[in-house]
């Protein structure tokens, strides 16, 4: 009896051991291919919260085999693929292993990664406001002097200012979008006897003439999923910059000039008066708020409308097979969104890179992101990946070889590089509660006619964080 | 999905219902109302149900049709125009399958999905089955309170724990004993952040309360005489568990396995949070969502991507449907 129970106990022990072993094997099998990546993430996980700027990064001779992780919101095959091509080009020169990961929700996810102690080495910020938040929270490392010097060789102060947080430089511009553009078909304009407007009043007169001729002047659609309304905010921002001074614009973005002030609500009214003019707008989806912003390319090509105000990246949304600015009958071109006061302000947007880790290899990659070489290599790769047409990428870095850009893109570049007044998309600079919240939603409400301008602007002011 | 719904519902109107009326004693108001509602529901013809099935399936069906249309067609017109226009293409599917070659493409992402979903399915079942047996059939001190505590964890939303978990995976968990300099390491720093292990560990942890609850409800209904007989024959707890409980619990185990596999396969948030910038470990959900690009430039690929992503769970469902339907009844009747 005793012998029997002893044997049973031994048997039971063996079984338990077998279960433990089985679990161990499963865990090992599933974990084994992660070892390599674990090394990379260890490097990434190293805390990088020192805000003090290191004096220099010199003496970084042997970077062979070091690893740098880059994370960002550019994720499609063309964008992320070309970005990787450009980084591979640099990796081949320096021996640094650079991995880029693009995820559509990267801009939301970076908060979790920074808070969770797992930030990438470099993040591509789609909004300067976000970069400033991370810099003030002590997550980002300020740029060392030699990195700033390298950046200044390629970027004008108008652009580097977006990476400046309270007097300290944290970000390097990486990509530029030009927003003050109107897409149109030159040959159609010519055949109908329309001329490109040079001022806001001329634009309004041209629209009235088009309506009288039975043409629809604008294609407008502001639907964009959870970001519905951002196209409306772009119009408001562009006109804020035209009706008022850059200083007023800065005060508005900083929250010092209220939405309900005469200046801002006047611009709201100006935009809505134009859009609400009978016959002014072709909305493919039935109403402006129900038309996806990406659906305005087809009606422009089909002559359902004459003009469409949208940023330079919109080239990628215009149907395949369309030619750009080559003088042919169906070619699509752009003109500069006309000014009001005679100056030529430019509304821009783009991405900035910021570093979470202070290491020589990280600064080398940061310098490369700010160089014209990066812009050229990436532009070439992205054009190739798009298989013709416009790449959708644009960089305002100076000293670039213009031949990597197509003629239309070159005209964007000359607008960007020569602008005296460049202002970043205001909603990207405002606190997220407003810039990615009420400005969009209340803007959509006034476009729908659900609210008056006074109600909507007051609601936006109320939502501004104190 | 739809075939199960229609089969069970569609058969109902013709099936005889013995005892349905006899159980309702006449004269009680609420029962008479119940009988009226019951008769009304029984009188709905099958074609109405079919109509509902069709309406219910329209969004999925239109997504499916759109996945075979060119980008500019998708942007220019609705899916219904495709019947007259034709112009079908497989381009979206080939684009989806060939995208992201630099990081291993979609095949790698599907493998990553399996690397997350399989351990996240097997491990909680193994642990939960043992725990459920212990809770149901091994008397020990504090059993009731421990069980109540475990099941209460069902109410904990996993979102609130994501950041602490990520911190734990990235740097371990340490606790300084108040008033002293001693630091206790509660969880060592294994550098798990960015690995598939971090993802399935998280899934496992959050699956356990529900798994234990479901399996306990089933296992506790097994007839106690079986266990007594087994014990008289000299079986220990492990033998009882392995020889009696597991074979009898297969429907419940399989049902939970299917649920858990579908949840983890379709998970986006936990994977993205735990993986962060480790793109080479992304499961298919994140890869497909990211194909659309920063401004939604290639949003037209999402419909095709959705069906590639849904293909695997559909296969799992159709092959294991038998268990699925039976498992829903787990614990409701003694067998």
The CATH topology of chain B is what? MetI-like fold
Count of discrete structural domains of chain B: 1
What general form of chain B does the structure show? Answer: globular
The CATH class designation of chain B is Mainly Alpha
Largest sheet of chain B, in brief, is:
2 strands, antiparallel
Name the largest protein-protein interface in this structure.
Answer: A-B, 64 and 55 residues
Kindly report the average pLDDT value of chain A: 85
Widest sheet of chain B: strand order? 1-2
What would CATH call the homologous superfamily of chain B? MetI-like
Spatial extent as radius of gyration of chain A: 26 Å
Helix share, percent of chain B:
55-70%
Q: Please, what is the oligomeric state?
A: heterodimer
The level-1 CATH class of the largest domain in chain A = Alpha Beta
Low-confidence stretches of chain A: 23-60
The helix content of chain A, as a percent range, equals: 40-55%
Can you offer a commentary on this structure?
- The complex is a heterodimer of chains A (466) and B (335).
- Chain A is an alpha/beta fold and 466 residues long.
- Chain A folds into two domains: 48-178 and 348-422, Periplasmic binding protein-like II (D-Maltodextrin-Binding Protein, domain 2, 3-Layer(aba) Sandwich); 181-344 and 431-463, Periplasmic binding protein-like II (D-Maltodextrin-Binding Protein, domain 2, 3-Layer(aba) Sandwich), CATH 3.40.190.
- In chain A, 47% of the residues lie in helices and 12% in strands.
- Chain A contains 19 helices and 13 strands.
- In chain A, the strands form four sheets. In chain A, strands 1, 2, 3, 6, 12 and 13 form a six-stranded mixed sheet that branches. A three-stranded antiparallel sheet of chain A has the order 10-7-11.
- In chain A, helix 3 crosses helix 15 (372-386), helix 6 (145-152) packs parallel to helix 14 and helix 10 packs across helix 12 (262-276).
- Mean pLDDT of chain B is 84; it is low at 1-26.
- Chain B is globular, with a radius of gyration of 26 Å.
- In chain B, strands 1-2 form a two-stranded antiparallel ribbon.
- With 335 residues, chain B is mostly helical.
- Chain B starts with a helix and ends in a 7-residue tail after the last helix.
- In chain B, strand 1 (173-176) and strand 2 form a beta hairpin.
- Chain B has a single domain (93-328), classed as MetI-like (MetI-like fold, Orthogonal Bundle), CATH 1.10.3720.
């Amino acid at each position: 009896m005793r012998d029997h129970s002893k044997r049973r106990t031994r048997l039971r022990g063996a079984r338990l051991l077998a279960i433990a072993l089985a679990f161990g094997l499963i865990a090992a099998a599933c974990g084994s291919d992660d070892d390599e990546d674990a090394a990379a993430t260890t490097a990434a996980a190293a805390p990088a919260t020192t805000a003090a700027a290191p004096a220099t990064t010199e003496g970084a001779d042997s970077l062979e085999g070091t690893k740098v992780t880059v994370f960002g919101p550019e994720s499609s095959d063309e964008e992320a693929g070309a970005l990787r091509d450009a980084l591979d080009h640099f990796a081949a020169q320096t021996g640094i292993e650079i991995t880029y990961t693009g995820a559509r929700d990267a801009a939301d996810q970076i908060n979790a990664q920074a808070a969770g102690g797992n930030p990438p080495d470099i993040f591509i910020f789609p909004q300067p406001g976000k970069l400033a938040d991370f810099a003030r929270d002590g997550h980002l490392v300020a740029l060392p002097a030699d990195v700033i010097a390298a950046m200044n060789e390629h970027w004008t102060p108008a652009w580097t200012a977006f990476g400046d947080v309270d007097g300290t430089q944290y970000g390097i511009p990486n990509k530029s979008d030009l927003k003050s553009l109107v897409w149109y078909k030159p040959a159609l304009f010519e055949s109908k006897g329309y001329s490109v407007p040079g001022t806001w009043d001329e634009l309004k007169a041209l629209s009235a003439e088009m309506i009288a001729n039975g043409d629809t002047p604008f294609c407008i659609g502001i639907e964009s999923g959870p970001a519905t309304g951002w196209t409306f905010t772009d119009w408001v921002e562009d006109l804020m910059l035209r009706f008022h001074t850059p200083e007023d614009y800065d005060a508005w973005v900083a929250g010092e000039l209220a939405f309900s002030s005469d200046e801002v609500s006047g611009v709201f009214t100006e935009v809505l008066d134009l859009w609400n003019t009978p016959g002014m707008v072709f909305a493919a989806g039935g109403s402006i708020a129900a038309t996806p912003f990406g659906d305005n390319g087809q009606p422009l090509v089909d002559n359902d409308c004459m003009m469409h105000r949208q940023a330079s990246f919109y080239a990628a949304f215009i149907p395949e097979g369309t030619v750009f600015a080559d003088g042919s009958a169906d070619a699509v071109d752009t003109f500069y969104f006309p000014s009001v006061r005679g100056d030529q302000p430019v509304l821009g947007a783009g991405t900035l890179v910021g570093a979470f880790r202070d290491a020589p290899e990280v600064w080398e990659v940061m310098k490369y992101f700010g160089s014209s070489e990066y812009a050229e290599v990436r532009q070439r790769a992205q054009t190739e990946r798009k298989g013709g047409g416009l790449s959708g990428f644009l960089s305002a870095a100076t000293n670039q070889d213009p031949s990597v850009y197509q003629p239309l893109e070159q005209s964007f570049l000359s607008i960007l590089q020569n602008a005296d007044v460049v202002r970043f998309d205001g909603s990207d600079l405002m606190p997220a509660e407003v810039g990615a919240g009420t400005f969009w939603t209340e803007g959509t409400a006034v476009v729908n006619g659900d609210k008056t301008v006074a109600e909507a602007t007051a609601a936006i002011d109320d939502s501004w964080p104190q | 999905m739809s075939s199960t719904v229609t089969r069970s519902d569609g058969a109902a109107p013709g099936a005889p219902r013995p005892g349905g009326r006899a159980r309702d004693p006449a004269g009680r108001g609420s029962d008479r109302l119940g009988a009226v509602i019951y008769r009304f529901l029984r009188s709905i013809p099958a074609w109405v149900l079919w109509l509902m099935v069709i309406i219910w399936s329209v969004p999925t069906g239109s997504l499916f049709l759109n996945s075979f249309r060119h980008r500019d067609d998708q942007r220019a017109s609705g899916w219904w125009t495709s019947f007259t226009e034709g112009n079908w293409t497989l381009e979206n599917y080939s684009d989806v399958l060939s995208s992201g070659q630099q990081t291993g493409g979609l095949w790698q992402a599907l493998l990553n999905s399996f690397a997350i979903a399989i351990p996240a399915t097997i491990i909680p079942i193994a642990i939960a089955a043992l725990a459920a047996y212990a809770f149901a059939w091994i008397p020990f001190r504090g059993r009731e309170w421990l069980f109540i505590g475990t099941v209460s964890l069902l109410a904990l939303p996993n979102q609130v724990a994501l950041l602490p978990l990520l911190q734990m995976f990235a740097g371990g968990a340490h606790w300084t004993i108040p008033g002293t300099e001693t630091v206790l390491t509660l969880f060592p720093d294994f550098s798990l952040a960015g690995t598939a292990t971090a993802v399935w560990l998280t899934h496992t942890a959050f699956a356990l309360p529900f798994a234990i609850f479901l399996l306990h409800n089933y296992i506790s209904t097994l007839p106690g005489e079986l266990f007594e007989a087994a014990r008289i024959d000299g079986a220990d707890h492990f033998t009882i568990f392995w020889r009696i409980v597991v074979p009898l619990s297969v429907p419940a185990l399989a049902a939970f396995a299917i649920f858990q596999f579908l949840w983890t396969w379709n998970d986006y948030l936990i994977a993205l949070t735990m993986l962060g910038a480790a793109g080479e470990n992304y499961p298919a959900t994140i890869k497909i969502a990211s194909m659309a690009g920063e401004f939604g430039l290639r949003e037209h690929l999402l419909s095709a991507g959705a069906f590639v992503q849904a293909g695997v769970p559909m296969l799992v469902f159709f092959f294991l449907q038998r268990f699925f339907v039976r498992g829903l009844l787990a614990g409701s009747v003694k067998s």
